[in-house]
Every structure is written in C-alpha cells, then in structure tokens.
From TrEMBL:
UniProt KW keywords: ATP-binding, Cell cycle, Cell division, Nucleotide-binding
GO biological process: cell division
Cellular component terms (Gene Ontology): cell division site; cytoplasm
Residue ranges occupied by any AAA+ ATPase domain in the UniProt entry: 53-179
Protein name per the record: Cell division protein ZapE
Keyword Nucleotide-binding belongs to the record: yes
Domain of life: Bacteria
UniProt-listed InterPro entries: AAA+_ATPase, ATPase_AFG1-like, P-loop_NTPase
C-alpha cells in the first residue's frame, strides 16, 4: 500500500531531533522505506511545512493525495523537538462533547495539555454546532503558542459550506489564513487507488461480492467482531459510538451491505463514519455485499441527504481487495 500506516505506533516523543532541511530529508527517507516516492504535491507541501516562521500549517487537498501520511511523517521527523497530540476529527469532537457541561475551556485545555504541536487529521465542518466548538478551540489556542497542523479535504473557505451558517465560522477562516501556512497538496491521482497491498490493518481487508457461506468464527482474523449492515448502520449510533466500538475491536466483518441508495440518510452517514474511524485506527475490515463498491456508493438517485464526504469513503474503500463470487465469512 502506497501509504500504509507503518507509523501508526509513533509516540509523542520519538527518534533523534531534526530541524529544517534534515526534517525534509527524513520524510523523503521514510517514503523510500515504504517503497514509494513523494508526489510533486507532497514535495510542495513539505516545503511549506519546513517554513521555520510558521505558527502552524493547514494542509488541504482532494481525497487520497497523501496529506495524512505527510503530516504523520513530519511529526516523526520532528522527533523530540515536539510533544505532539494527534487527534482525528471524530475523536476531537468526541472529547469536546464529553467534557463537563459549562467547562468547555477546561476540556480544551485537557485535550491539548502538555502539547507543543496539535495534529488534527481530517478536519471538516458541516454541523454548525461543531463549527462553534472548533472556533472556540482555535480562539483558545491562538494565544498559547501551541502549533497546529491540520489536514483537510477542504480549503478554509469551504468549511461549514451551508450558506445559512457559513458566516458563523468566517472569523476563524480569516484567522486560519492569517496565522497558519495554508498549503494545498495537489495532484491528479488518488494514491489509494494505486494499490500495493498491506499485511495488516485496514488495507489488508477484503470486499467480497456475491453470496456468502457461513464458517467457523475461529476462521476470522484476530477473532473479528461481526455485524450486519442493518445491525450497525441502521440503528441509532453516533460517530462517537462507532469510535468507541472501533477502539475495542481490532478486526471487523461487515456483511449484507446494501446499495446506499436503498437506505435512509442516517444509515448512509453511519456507514461513512464507520469507514472513517476504522481507517484512522487502522482496523482490518472484511466486507461482503451483493454489489461492488462503486455500486454501493452510487447515490445519484438517492432520496434525502447523502454524506458530504462520500468521495473520501470511496477513496478509502479502494484500499480493500475486491473479489467476486462466493466467499467465506463468519456466521
């Protein structure tokens, strides 16, 4: 796999400290270790990350351009020069929403306590409530000197795109532009579609098309937990609930996955949220469906809302190995 989560286990303090051009060279070496070359878009963004005067960096670009890999590699290269707090967007909002009522600032302080650098991955804002929380976090952090490294599929101006609410976040968009280096990670190719395989984690998973025969649960990798789509995605669960489940189980099976066009908007969004948290925690996922991934994700004729980040879902599912015909999954 072009950008396997080979660094998933990096600690908040690791390796020898590096600076400036040495960090750039280290990131290039990490790419060589993973047997791929940095894209021109990644190289351009790497130059932005190396800017010594930056208060932080906002990396944005289309899905699958290597933003998360680049951010994680940069953190690894920094080594002991920085104590890092890494949060996925779902984990970030979960932490804020679970804090004591009326003590948001204290919760923010707890989330970033002791950090020199906060890496917030997959930063996106569609909900006005989340946007107001994010704005409060940014306003709390700006005076502290804590550096920020954000990755997003959206330019700052595209955050909270609903025109009825966009103005609420505009002050923070201006601040992001003024305080952070905003760098696009460009490119014409979704790198996840290049394949390459993986021996563990999400990218080692499979998508089996067709009928499924029951088998002994002991055949499941790492004693995978199994759900039907209806059990997991068609019952009331928040993204935070899915994150809690993903933390408890390292291998997953999701069976009887329908076309999303045949489900309700809430089920579609839960499916997209599930893929997000499983990828971020690098959990193996084996799926079975009567349909191929592109057929499941085709929502052109869907009634009601569809997930705004479905392109990211499709990009991530392209990491799975697809096979047709009959397969074997746990009963």
């Amino acid at each position: 796999m072009w950008a396997s989560r080979w660094m998933r286990g990096w600690s908040r303090r690791s390796t020898a400290p590096l600076t400036g051009p040495q960090c750039v060279a280290a990131v290039e070496a990490y790419a060589a270790e993973a047997t791929f070359s940095l894209t021109p878009g990644q190289r351009g963004a790497l130059s932005g990350l190396a800017n010594p005067g930056a208060r932080g960096t906002y990396l944005f670009g289309e899905v699958g351009r290597g933003k998360t890999w680049l951010a994680d590699a940069w953190v690894r290269a920094l080594g002991e020069r920085a104590t890092v707090r890494r949060l996925h967007a779902v984990e970030f909002f979960q932490g804020l929403n679970r804090g004591p009522v009326g003590h948001v600032d204290e919760t923010i302080d707890d989330l970033v306590r002791g950090a020199d650098l906060v890496l917030l991955d997959e930063f996106h804002l569609h909900d006005p409530g989340d946007a107001m929380l994010a704005q409060r976090v940014l306003n709390r952090l700006w005076p502290t000197g804590v550096r920020l490294l954000l990755t997003s599929n959206y330019a700052p101006e595209q955050l909270l795109p609903n025109p009825s609410f966009h103005h609420l976040f505009e002050p923070s968009i201006v601040a992001i532009r003024e305080r952070l280096d905003v760098v696009e990670v460009g490119g014409d190719t979704d790198l996840r579609t290049l394949g390459g395989g993986a021996s563990a984690g999400f990218a080692s998973g499979t998508w089996t098309v067709g009928q499924v025969e029951p088998s002994d649960p002991s055949d499941a990798p790492d004693q995978a937990v199994q759900f039907t789509f209806a059990e997991l995605c068609s019952t009331p669960r928040s993204a935070s609930d899915l994150l809690d489940l993903a933390r408890r189980h390292v291998a997953w099976r999701l069976v009887d996955v329908p076309r999303l066009v045949d489900t309700d908007p809430q089920s579609r969004q839960r499916f997209a949220d599930l893929i997000d948290v499983l990828v971020d925690l690098d959990r193996r996922l084996d799926m079975t469906s009567a349909h191929r991934p592109d057929e499941v994700l085709d929502v052109a004729d869907a009634e009601g809302e569809v997930p705004r980040d479905l392109a990211r879902t499709g990009s991530r599912l392209s990491l799975l190995t697809v096979s047709g015909g009959r397969g074997r999954l746990c009963a």
